[in-house]
Amino acid sequence: MLLAWASGLTLAYREGYLLSPWLHAKLVYVVALTVVYGYFVAATRAFAEDGNRRSHALYRVLNEVPTLLMIFIVVLAVFKPW
Questions:
Q1: What angle is formed at CA 59 by the lines to CA 56 and CA 64, rounded to 5 degrees?
Q2: Where are the domains of the chain?
Q3: What is the pLDDT of residues 5-24, one digit of tens each?
Q4: What is the DSSP letter of 35?
Q5: Which of 49, 52, 65, 80 has the smallest C-beta neighbourhood within 10 Å, fewest atoms?
């Protein structure tokens, strides 16, 4: 993940996209995806220690969040709307 972050920011800098509004929106979604990933890592550890206190309904909803975020990220990267 760190390599993907570093290469993505380097590419954005080299291509001159750092001031583009679409890239700022995309980075917000990428940061959100990173936060969701961190939450899933913590939840996996809680499951391993049998310390889960969340309902199954929460995990069903959270299961869809990365997919939606990735769709938004790809749309912003391909179409560059601003």
A1: 140
A2: 20-79
A3: 999 999 999 999 999 999 99
A4: H
A5: 49
